[in-house]
Design a protein that fits this description.
The protein is 62% helix and 8% strand. By secondary structure, it is α/β, with parallel strands linked by helices. Strands 1, 2, 3, 4, 5, 6, 7, 8, 9, 10 and 11 form an eleven-stranded mixed β-sheet that branches. It is globular.
């Protein structure tokens, strides 16, 4: 039995099953420790690898193939995140900033290699490692509405130059390492790379646009075409004389310019982020030798110098470029934080150099340490810098509403009626959700909103349960009941029936087709196992919906007695303002508005002084409309830390809590958004609402 079990574990299918199990089970555990998923995947790789449990051989053909696919998929998704149209707006400044990063990074890495006595080729590879970066903080910038700031566009656009240049340097170093790179062959290499890049980028864009013009919209065929493009471009890069990850990166750039946002793009990113990219990180863990890791710790000077160089060269490049472009200090800090994380191209380059025998395990371990630090520190500094960037003046410790001059003032949103889509599936919560939707939809005065109850039927699921016709009949019954429950509410009602295999995407598509202003869904019961295995429905809706999503955890609570409403405010962004506006809508539609009290709770940094507290209080009070009595809005400022515990404590005396959650993901990377707010919703002592995006 033991022999057969051992055989199964080392069988290709057994290896694949172990890799999938790790990809599914480890990330949720890592998130509980407030660490990126990739840290847990690396640790799991070390555990099951040849140096601990001996379950998976790092040299197995199965793991090598899957890891190679993960590496090219990783660079492909990096390319998918770069918007060439935005890059063209400030391409000169992006190239300038990218060139500074590349020159300083290569110089720093090469210098470190020479200090520690590395030969020429490994020193060049260290330079390539130092020059690359992945803007992990971009989703944070986007959540604050600052993605159109020029410093952000320049920083993200610089990724194109630095990653391509670093990958070309990788090709040169590999050629030198093989001893077959001469001046003539180098010239031929540059020519072949240039021709290859033009063919990939221009060819994919031309073919893609031609297909879309001809209405080739079969999603399955388009998905397969994207995968074919990825692998053909990767193989073409090998023919051009460079690493396959270069072709994958260029393919990502080209595909992103023709593939619109939607289901196909979500599927492409999901396949990589859920399967192949995690396997790549697990493989890196398999390659880690604990003995050499101990040597790296003993050789702390090298790791410390690598980390210092990685942080220092990016900081210097940001300062030089920022001063040259006359950016503010906050913009310079934002540029540094976006250029700091070393994840995608860095790890792929280190991995390839290690496989080629040009880098040893000591360097690989140091690179992984740099990756963990920069992937954690970069997004943290991005949050601080983007909040500071949106301040009304330099003396203000917080940001403003974060709205551009041409955007609608948030206070205006409160006055207009809204069209609210409400999926109906649970009879126990249906009435409460409809009542809430009616109150949120109502505009100022006699203007009423519109309710859109939605019944969704999945053909594939219902056929397995007992038949599609029965499911359709049940859905129509639910809609009739919803129409009955909506009688007497202030909003007009129009029921919708949709057949869609993807429940989350079906909700999002219905909201888009109907022009809904808001999508209201019930939180449902937390099911950790289902979330681990099948994903989170709420998360899927929040990531795909065109409009804000409000997740309600109301239970059987009646909405007529919501007299105490708690609104935790993180900052002064448009997202925080939206939380307050939802509370104002509930206040204005209460049976007795004068008895409703809204408490704005802000938990601030312990270091803030009295002046900063006073300034924050004044800013929050300025949000209050003139027709609101002073006693109806209370400002509560508390000293941190312990945000979750303080919100939970205050909720004991409240009828409703309105929370804000940023649930966007870093595409293609196993670094998902935090589900901290989602967990808090289920833990509070009273009903709660969670809103995903500002209503603009």
């Amino acid at each position: 039995m033991a022999a057969s079990l051992s055989h199964l574990m080392h069988h290709p299918l057994g290896i694949f099953a172990q890799l999938v199990a790790i990809s599914v089970l480890i990330p949720p555990l890592t998130r509980r420790l407030r660490l990126p998923d990739l840290v847990g995947l690396l640790a799991a790789g070390v555990l099951v690898g040849p140096h601990v449990l001996h379950w998976i051989d790092a040299k197995s053909e199965t793991i090598t193939l899957l890891s190679d696919i993960g590496a090219i998929y990783l660079l492909f998704t990096v390319g998918l995140e770069i918007d060439l149209e935005e890059f063209n707006r400030v391409k000169r400044r992006s190239v300038t900033f990218g060139a500074l990063i590349f020159v300083l990074g290569v110089g720093t890495g090469f210098g470190i290699g020479q200090i520690f006595g590395f030969p020429l080729v490994p020193s060049l590879l260290l330079g390539a490692l130092m020059a690359t970066h992945t803007p992990l903080g971009y989703p944070i910038v986007r959540s604050y509405g600052a993605q159109r700031d020029e410093s952000v566009i320049v920083s993200v656009g610089s990724t194109i130059f630095t990653d391509i240049a670093a990958l070309l340097l990788l090709a040169v170093a590999l050629g030198l390492g093989k001893g077959n790179l001469t001046p003539s062959s180098f010239t031929a290499l540059l020519i072949s790379i240039s021709v290859f890049a033009c063919l990939v980028v221009l060819g994919i864009r031309m073919i893609g646009r031609h297909l879309w013009m001809r209405n080739v919209i079969d999603e399955n065929r388009v998905f397969l075409a994207v995968l074919l493009t990825l692998f053909v471009a990767s193989l073409g890069a090998e023919l051009a004389g460079v690493e396959k990850i270069v072709g994958a990166f260029l393919a990502g750039l080209a595909v992103n310019s023709v593939l619109p946002e939607g289901k196909v793009k979500e599927q492409v990113i999901f396949v990589g982020g859920a399967l192949f990219i995690p396997i790549f990180f697990i493989h890196l863990g398999l390659l880690l030798d604990l003995g050499s890791l101990a040597d790296s710790i003993s050789n702390i000077e090298f790791t410390a110098l690598m980390l210092t160089g990685a942080l220092g060269c990016k900081a210097l490049a940001a300062v030089i470029a920022g001063r040259w472009f006359r950016y503010s200090p906050n913009q310079i800090l934002l540029m540094w934080s976006l250029a700091m994380p070393k994840v995608a191209a860095t790890l792929a380059t280190a991995f390839i150099g290690f496989q080629a025998g040009l880098l040893d395990s000591t360097v690989l371990n140091a690179v992984l340490a740099v990756m963990v630090v920069t992937a954690t520190l970069g997004p943290t500094l991005t949050t601080r810098s983007v909040v500071a960037l949106m301040e009304p003046n330099e003396r203000s410790p917080y940001g403003t509403t974060g709205l551009d001059e041409d955007q609608e003032v948030p206070g205006e949103v409160v006055r207009r009626p809204l069209k609210v889509l409400v999926p109906v599936a649970n009879p126990d919560t249906e009435l409460s959700l409809l009542k809430l939707a009616a109150r949120l939809s109502q505009g100022e005065g006699e203007h009423n909103g519109q309710l859109l109850p939605l019944a969704l039927v999945s053909p594939s699921l219902e056929e397995a349960r007992g038949g599609l016709n029965r499911a359709l009949s049940a859905a129509r019954t639910r809609l009739n009941q919803a129409a009955t429950n909506a009688e007497g509410l202030t909003a007009t009602t129009r029921c919708l029936l949709r057949v869609d295999d993807d429940i989350a995407a079906g909700m999002s598509r219905s909201a888009l087709e109907e022009g809904a202003d808001l999508l209201l869904i019930g939180a449902g019961r937390p099911d950790p196992l289902r979330k681990w295995l099948l994903g989170d429905l709420v998360d899927g809706v929040c990531r795909t919906a065109h409009c804000p999503v409000v997740v309600a955890n109301l239970g059987r609570r009646e909405l007529n007695d919501l007299n105490q409403i708690l609104v935790p405010i993180k900052d002064l962004s448009a997202s925080a303002r939206e939380q307050f506006e939802l509370a104002l809508r509930l206040l204005s539609t209460a049976p007795d508005p004068t008895s409703t009290i809204i408490s704005l709770l802000h938990i601030h940094d312990p270091r803030f002084n009295r002046h900063e507290r006073s300034w924050m209080e004044q800013q929050l009070m300025s949000w209050c409309p003139r027709n609101i009595f002073s006693h109806q809005v209370q400002i509560k400022l508390l000293q941190g830390p312990g945000i979750d515990s303080k919100i939970h404590w205050f909720s004991k005396n409240q009828d409703l809590v309105i929370l804000r959650s940023q649930r966007r993901r870093v595409a293609g990377l196993p670094i998902p958004a935090s589900d901290r707010t989602s967990n808090l919703v289920h833990q509070l002592a009273c009903p709660a609402l969670m809103i995903s995006d500002p209503l603009t």
